[in-house]
Amino acid sequence: MKTIIEPFRIKTVEPIRITTRDERAKLLQEAGHNVFLLNAEDVLIDLLTDSGTSAMSQNQWAAMMQGDESYAGSRSWYRFEASVKDIFGFEHVIPTHQGRAAERILFGITCKEGDVVPNNTHFDTTRANIEYTGAQAVDVVIPEGREPATFHPFKGNVDLEALENLISSVGRERVPMILITVTNNSGGGQPVSMENVRAVSKIARAHKIPLYLDACRFAENSYFIKLREKGFAAKSVKEIARELFSYADGCTMSAKKDAFANIGGFLCTNDPDLARQEKDLLILTEGYPTYGGLAGRDLDAIAVGLQEVLEEDYLRYRFASTRYLGEHLSSAGVPIVQPPGGHAIYIDAKSMLDHIPPSRFPGQALACALYLEGGIRGVEIGSVMFGKKDPDTGAGIPAAMELVRLAIPRRVYTQSHIDYVVEVLVEVHRKRESLRGLEITYEAPFLRHFTARFKEA
Ligand code: P61
């Protein structure tokens, strides 16, 4: 059979609410044209993020009932640690309440003013946590990774020459670590090849710089390797994941993505001294090292979810449903980042709304139009999220791309929801010339996209 179906059936349902266009126009105005500031109840199809929004399985819910809420040394902790070690293979596992807490602890200890941290593309929280220490976050993705329309099987790959040049220009002692984000979220959810991870690891070892993986979507990246890279077709996704992590010295992880959990994360390292310092800091701000800000039941949900996400029936369905959205949009003429990523489709707002300059935030304008037209919420990944200001002139420096991401929560929406999304997008695309740009009326000093307010320009 050609049809790839959801490898599950639905046992609990959550109603969603249909609003009118007039209601949505008013709500958008009240939210300052920032979809983060809408009430979720007023959103029909919520594609803001795939983070913490997955549907858990019956086995995860059953595991939660076995949660051991002991403060120290709970059974849940040991199940969690065993599941993480089974896949990731690192010596030390430090639980955190989500990915950015792992980032804050890691960068807080290892980075300082004047340091430089390369990554294929830093996600916003990663960049912000590095910059908060005074270090500089530098993106060194291959050139194809910045070209939405270009096809490449591993568009998330690190540009090895750019990495080498960066290390030699700033000096090895100013590079506390090299990061690779799998899959490359800000660059279109694009995978990194095993060959590239091996090559980066070789460079890192030669310079004695630790290599860390930002592992949020490790299962999707591993499945892309199985499908696209020579020599991996016969391997299990778990074997591929294990090999991927074997080249790294540690990782940060948000369990809200490829662990099907609604909350959670962890930090891993093979360095015992670093692990000790990380645990000291963890105790100060997150919690005791056998729970790290999580309930025992959360640890159990993650322990099960990490194993479930590696099931190939699930991954096959996951990729088919994301690709379905991408192919339908693309064949209707909507420009998207090609090829479709694992967790999301990214619309190229710069190309779709070429009458709105980056200084007027075409991605933000498109995100608002999707809500207004059909109650769909996506997220801008462009100059609102990543734009900078020239420190001398105050002029805006645009981001590399102006994208709107439609992230697909895991096991949540059905094909008819996605058909509806396509219909709305095609309609917005048809009216694209009537869309107007936006101006910022309020912004916070960092991670401004969460709370910024806008008016129509
Ligand atoms: C997301 F609109 N991602 O993609 P935490 N690394 C990477 C991530 O994708 C990531 C984190 C670290 C989110 C949530 C999100 O402005 C936004 O568990 C590759 O969220 O702390 C998170 O993990 C951090 C959405 C984050 C946003 C920031 O939707």
Q: Beta-sheet strand percentage? A: 5-15%
Major sheet: size, sense and barrel closure?
Answer: 5 strands, mixed
Distance between the termini: 51 Å
| Radius of gyration, in angstroms, nearest whole number | 21 Å
**What's the count of strands?**
16
| Residue windows where pLDDT falls under 50 for at least 5 positions | none
Return the structural class.
alpha/beta
How many DSSP helices? 16
Strand order of the largest sheet: 2-8-7-6-5
Percentage of helical residues? 25-40%
Bound molecules: ligand P61
Q: What does the average pLDDT come to?
A: 96
The global form is: globular
Mind explaining what this structure looks like?
This protein is of the alpha/beta class. Helices cover 40% and strands 13% of the residues. It has 16 helices and 16 strands. The chain has helices spanning 21-30, 58-65, 75-88, 99-110, 124-132, 160-170, 194-206, 218-228, 237-246, 272-285, 296-308, 312-331, 349-352, 362-374, 383-386, 415-430, and strands at 45-46, 92-96, 116-119, 136-139, 178-181, 211-214, 250-254, 265-269, 344-348, 376-377, 379-381, 388-389, 396-397, 403-407, 438-442, 453-456. The strands form six sheets. Strands 2-8-7-6-5 form a five-stranded mixed sheet, sandwiched between helices. Helix 7 links the parallel strand 5 (178-181) and strand 6. Helix 3 runs parallel beside helix 11 and helix 8 packs across helix 9 (237-246). It starts with 20 loop residues before the first helix and ends with a strand. Bound molecules: ligand P61. Ligand P61 is lined by residues 49, 51, 98-100, 123-126, 181, 185, 214, 216, 254, 256, 265, 379, 407, 449.
